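Here we describe the complex-level prediction in full. Unlike the single-chain runs in Section 2.1, the two entities below were treated as one system.
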Amino acid sequence: MKILTANRLTDGEAVWYAGGAWAETIDSSELAADKAAEERLEAIGAASLAANEVVDVNLIDVDVVDGVIHPLRLRERIRAAGPTNRNDLGKQARPKAA
Amino acid sequence: MYRYDEFDHQFVQARVAQFSDQVERRLAGEITEDQFRPLRLMNGVYLQLHAYMLRIAVPYGTLSSKQLRMLAHIARKYDKGYGHFTTRQNIQFNWPALSDIPAILADLASVEMHAIQTSGNCIRNVTADHFAGAAADEAADPRPYAEILRQWSSVHPEFSYLPRKFKIAVTGAERDRAAIQTHDIGLHLKKNAAGELGFAVYVGGGQGRTPLVAKKIRDFLPEEHLLSYCTAILRVYNLYGRRDNKYKARIKILVHETGVEEFTRQVEAEWAELKDGELTLPEADIKAIDAYFAPPVLPARPEGDEAIKLARLDSRSFSEWLDQNVVTHRNPDYAAVTISLKGIGEVPGDASDSQMDAVADLAEKYAFDELRVSHEQNLILPHVARADLKAIYDRLAEIGLATANSDLISDIIACPGLDYCALANARSIIVAQNISKRFASLERQRDIGELKLKISGCINACGHHHVGHIGILGVEKKGAELYQVTLGGSADEHTSVGEIIGRGFGPDEITDAIETVVETYLAIRLDRSEKFLDAYRRVGPAPFKEALYAGEAKAA
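The structure predicted for the assembly as a whole is:
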């Protein structure tokens, strides 16, 4: 499975494509389970890059375990949470959505 | 310290205005990312995992209190309350918004700072011995020449689009504290028999995926020829350096593939055309720059010895700090102090905004307003009266910066690694923190003695692992982090590249492996005076391999 990720142009915030917009957390990312879905996400990413909303657009590999999205690569897990040495920084430091 | 003249002010202001306009046009969608990327890189703006990163130049590692306070202000106002001092004596902020960067650059310009040429395929921030101007063993202060190189290389039209980045370091002492042999050009400022100043010139050193020690191509270049000779080197590189393969584009590859003799011949031939021309440095100009770096007037403070003797009796921790973090100054009443940014379990090179403010206050009160950033990611007070050392120590202890571990195993160089960096394959910081905690006992560290441990999170080697007495390189293997250990590297006047000792270690194994290496050293050293590096050079890798891997061989 794949999801679409990027960094927001204005502040570099890591974002994931979810439900028609870019979200600041990975949790509700739109999943692509087949080639057609991947191509659709890629097209959305390319359009968003061209519209100067985001930069560094990538499709990344994930697993979904009990409804929770887990990126396969450590790099992407760190992007989704924040630096592992400081849990007071990054998304992990923010209050969880109710 | 160097002070901007009218031209410098205009130059930096013009660049702030230019880049602010470029940011504005990017945010308005008038230029694409492909167009903007090279522009932002030329101004020190990277995109990392979590945010943009801004790298600010600290020319030859020299800062005033006012400048450090401004860095604290930037950390507080635009970032997340801390900054990271780097192995090029610069500082990086990890969380700035692109939209804030014009304001940050304007703030920096107000204290004569900028982020120009901290990235891109140009001549980067020139680094120098962090004890320059204070060291008892130097022939002359190398920083005036670093400043001359800075002025010459800033937006140099011929050298702004080199095949690859280009790094120059200068030292003024026989004992190399600036790692000049790991640089594209390394300059050793010295005096000849007649007492004239000049440079031994080294070319083609570097780390990254192909670590090579620089070759000396000239033993004594009279100082007035500094720019013509560097121009000749860069011209040969610009002409023949490879542009077809990023990994073979550094000058070290050119020197290696051309051969030192032929490369030197090419440089000398080019120099013959340039020598004694307009690039010759007039003596008056050298003197004018020299004057900016005139050492502070150091009043006699002979009471230092007595004060220290009493304070040592009073405080063991002060005494330990004195032994480890304080070095001899050319003036016997004074000393140079290393402020360790390597507290046990802390992030190497990180300082909070309040720590930066407090250190700036100390420099203002006790150190003639001057600070240095070392390439080993510590801060230095280069000129302090020995009589004031106890007061400085007490204040450093209050702000958590009095760790007495300079040159010991917990004085680790580490790159940001995968916790921040978009290029990294593995984490560095947490490896450094775990090793630091394992060796937390200063008594144990002092027993081990001088041991330079350096960690990089990818083969680009920002953490200088190739030249660590113990080096650790993080790689990604089958989706997991793996750490390769190298032994026997060094970055001093006897520079060597470490040798890979064997298979790598997982994140849960690497601290144990380092402890095994250290215990092996302790077992084989002749006595306490034989340092880790000397012992390794004497016995080679065999006992370390045996200790790390013998169990496996038997099990297999």
